[in-house]
Design a protein that fits this description.
single chain; mainly alpha; 64% helix; 12 helices; 292 residues; 2 domains
Amino acid sequence: MLRLELTWQAAAITSGCLVGAAVVMRLAKRTPVARSVPAARLATVAAFAQEAGTVLALFALWQLAGSHPALGADGALARAQWLWHAERVLHMPSEAVVQRAFLPHPLLVQAFNLYYASLHFAVLIACLIWLFVRYRASYLRVRTTVVLFTGFSLLVQLIPVAPPRMLAGDGMVDTAVRYGQSVYGSDAGFNPDQLSAMPSVHVGWALIVAVVIVHVSRSRWRWLALGYPALTTLAVVVTANHFWLDGVAAAVLVALTLLIQRAAQAIRRKPARADRTPRQQEFLPGTTSAAR
């Protein structure tokens, strides 16, 4: 299968080049060559290079962390088995039943394999570029959301959890291996970089993209974006890469990230008057004894 996704080494090198280019453009803005380029355009290109480098650095960290779990791989299967049983206790629909409904349709399954392997990062990047170009005021807040969510996910993923396709008794099929589309190689090996199933970053990024489009765009079609995380959840289940609970955990982390950002924003916007003691307010200009 053609790898559409960068390795962490390639992402790190590209990130370094972009950030370096941004620094050079900012330092060279007073040179004779730079004077021939409008300052605003040069600043925009430098900012874009810096932001692209930042996002790629985050992606490189995610790729690297996925291959180095803090704990050994020994408990990964046991944790996955616990999730499987927890879902049965909660009467959640069986991932195996959902997958079996799609297995008779090879082309659809192969499309889901390709979707899982490449689309999640491409759509996130496209969303960030769209924001940077069209809604610059919202860009930094969304980029911070992506960084915080991914960071929280990496902390959770330090505890290895196997995906459902690795469990022998759940009846799930490794569809990517079946059709030669696995991003992990040609076999279903027990590699460390396959043990970061909890939470599903694919689902989390898809949720962020959908929330951003609905919140920022004014198009009447923006609500269709809510279908993206739903389709992503279906894809990760059909390909046996995630449990339902992996997606639920991602949704909880996205909500937590947004709440933290909202709380931080409220603190920053807290009026200075609220920080003053009653004694200080007594001597504010324009305050009369009647007002007191």
